[in-house]
User: Which sequence fits this backbone?
């Protein structure tokens, strides 16, 4: 079943004729995939807000109020974190949502439930210590999970601030250490962008990846996750970042971004994202240059690429509230299995899944007794 | 209910019956109406179906809460509905309080759990006051007016028997035992509350009730608007999220109200005091 939100993203002017029943489904889908605030922004750039019925607008406005509040809190936490870590000589790099808020790209209507930072592996222990002193503590997790995180993951178990309950993910790498085709993280750390936070402290310098790397990180993330709960939102993040990048770099943008993707070995993923964006969304940035620059046949014609493109397309346009159909389920299964295989070789994955299911069975029995 | 249309899906028969009973005066929706919240209460699959069965509250495929024992479904639905409003109605400042109305003037009764807010609310709702809401005062950001919800009143523990005696006409739903808040039961919103659901009210009184069995007689103590404002912030569900709008709405609300603390040991006295107070405030507003 095709989702209404996917239809609206492809043809925004459809909202002029939408019935209450269609709006209802649209809001439900948008809430479910964290897109309500973002959809409001996209409709605003096409001057379509006057076509939203007042009853429906309440839902959009509520989502906007919440994202604005979240973003204010994120800005506060970012300045606290920078102060805290700078005191011991660590300069964290903010990733994903927090980076979008600080850099004011793709922040429009963006929800951010947690903060992601990247610190060099050799400073990780000092960072954890300092964060602990400032009230960031790990939630209770099982000994097995803790060991699993430390041994195989690219991040430590999530930290939660004691008083403010904000969730913080501390990464020391972009990808899990078990991933095949690991890319060289040092390449991403060469070109770091600094931002000021005029709302909080004009002296403070906050670091994020540069725009092309933020785009590629988001692309990488989208195609390595096992489920696409927030996939549409992530894809619109990428689209909005492309708009800004193309505005800054003008005609060279596509060539520069492709070159960077090649360096980081993420060119296939970038192509997939560009193809999905041009296929699924109403154009707000001209993406033709990407196909002209490189013969798409080199990538587009392989069977693997086509299967992948088909699966993502199916999943992203399916009505997430009423998931049905063999196409959706086969696509979802494929992407789920693929993401696990990418992250972990089978010799690690199978014992891991075995142990996890055993823990689950034990937990269920304990809860029922 | 009031400004919100909801759809509830469940296969749990006792819950369906209870909702049918408590909400029997609510307007039924047609296909053409806009539904704000699609809620469902569903028993999870697996082993837990057989041993100590549980129930999940689901809205748009997400479960914001941990499951509860299936016997608590009736309470779970009301809590989930409260949550849906508090999360998705940012065009109101939402205060955790009871609100009632008489002659167009609304009284706001905020209260920490156990303060006797709902008991007082149930008593007032059956003695000449119109119930706007037992749990959530919806203060419009634009106008400052209060929009009715007219949902059932939630009574806990001893209050259930007290109100059964005090308001013989009150219609009780199923009693749920052993929740995190003790035993609780809902009473149906009186018919005037549901029939006048589209009539908003102007707030003119804020009274912080406190049940105090140790005092000799019930009494009202005036408090300053500043103190009331600070107290109320802690009672708001979405004050922080609303930012400046939250502050301006709340300060306008407080500045148009007279504010009191009420310590009461007996419902009859409390009702007399509040009726007198309402008369005085109404006269002040006239002159």
Assistant:
């Amino acid at each position: 079943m095709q989702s209404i939100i996917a239809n609206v993203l492809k043809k925004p002017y459809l909202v002029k004729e939408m019935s209450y029943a269609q709006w209802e489904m649209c809001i439900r889908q948008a809430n479910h995939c964290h897109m309500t605030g973002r959809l409001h922004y996209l409709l605003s750039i096409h001057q379509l807000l006057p076509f939203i019925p007042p009853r429906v607008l309440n839902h959009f406005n509520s989502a906007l109020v919440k994202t604005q509040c979240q973003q204010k809190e994120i800005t506060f936490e970012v300045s606290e974190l920078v102060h805290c870590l700078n005191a011991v000589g660590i300069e964290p790099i903010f990733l994903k949502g927090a980076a979008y808020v600080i850099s004011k790209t793709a922040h429009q209507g963006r929800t951010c439930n947690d903060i992601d930072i990247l610190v060099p592996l050799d400073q990780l222990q000092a960072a954890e210590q300092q964060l602990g002193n400032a009230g960031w503590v790990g939630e209770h997790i099982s000994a097995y999970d803790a060991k699993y995180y430390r041994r195989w993951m690219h991040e430590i178990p999530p930290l939660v601030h004691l008083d403010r309950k904000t969730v913080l993910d501390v990464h020391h790498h972009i990808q899990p250490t078990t991933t095949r085709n690991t890319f060289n993280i040092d390449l991403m750390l060469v070109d770091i962008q600094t931002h000021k936070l005029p709302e909080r402290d004009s002296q403070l310098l906050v670091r994020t990846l540069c725009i092309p790397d933020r785009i590629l990180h988001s692309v990488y993330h989208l195609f390595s996750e096992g489920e696409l709960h927030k996939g549409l939102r992530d894809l619109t993040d990428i689209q909005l970042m492309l708009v800004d990048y193309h505005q800054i770099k003008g005609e060279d943008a596509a060539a520069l971004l492709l070159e960077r993707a090649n360096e980081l070995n993420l060119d296939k993923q970038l192509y997939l994202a560009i193809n999905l964006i041009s296929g699924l969304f109403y154009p707000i940035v001209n993406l033709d240059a990407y196909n002209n620059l490189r013969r798409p046949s080199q990538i587009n014609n392989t069977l693997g690429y086509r299967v992948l493109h088909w699966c993502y397309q199916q999943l992203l346009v399916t009505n997430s509230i009423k998931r049905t159909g063999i196409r959706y389920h086969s696509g979802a299964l494929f992407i789920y299995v693929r993401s696990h295989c990418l992250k972990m070789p089978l010799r690690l994955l199978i014992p891991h899944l075995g142990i996890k299911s055993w823990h689950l069975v034990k937990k269920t029995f304990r809860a029922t007794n | 209910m009031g400004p919100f249309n909801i759809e509830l899906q469940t296969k749990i028969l006792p819950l369906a019956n209870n909702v049918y009973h408590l909400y029997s005066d609510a307007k039924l929706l047609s296909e053409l109406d806009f539904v704000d919240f699609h809620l469902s209460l569903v028993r999870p699959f697996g082993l837990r179906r057989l041993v100590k069965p549980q129930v999940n509250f689901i809205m748009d495929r997400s479960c914001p809460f941990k499951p509860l024992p299936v016997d608590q479904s009736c309470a779970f639905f009301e809590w989930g509905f409260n949550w849906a409003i508090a999360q998705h109605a940012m065009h109101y400042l939402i205060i955790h309080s009871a609100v009632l109305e008489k002659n167009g003037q609304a009284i706001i009764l905020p209260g920490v759990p156990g303060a006797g807010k709902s008991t007082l609310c149930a008593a007032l709702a059956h003695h000449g006051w119109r119930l706007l809401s037992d749990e959530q005062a919806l203060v419009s950001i634009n106008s400052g007016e209060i929009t009715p919800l007219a949902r059932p009143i939630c009574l806990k523990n001893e209050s259930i028997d007290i109100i059964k005696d005090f308001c013989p006409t009150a219609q009780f739903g199923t009693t749920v035992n052993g929740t995190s808040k003790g035993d609780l039961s809902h009473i149906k919103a009186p018919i005037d509350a549901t029939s006048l659901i589209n009539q908003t009210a102007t707030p003119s009184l804020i009274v912080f009730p406190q049940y105090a069995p140790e005092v000799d007689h019930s009494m009202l103590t005036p408090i300053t608007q500043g103190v009331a404002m600070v107290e109320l912030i802690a009672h708001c569900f979405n004050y922080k999220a609303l930012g400046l709008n939250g502050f301006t709405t709340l300060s306008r609300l407080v500045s148009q109200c007279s504010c009191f603390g009420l310590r009461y040991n007996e419902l009859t006295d409390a009702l007399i005091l509040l009726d007198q107070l309402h008369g005085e405030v109404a006269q002040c507003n006239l002159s």
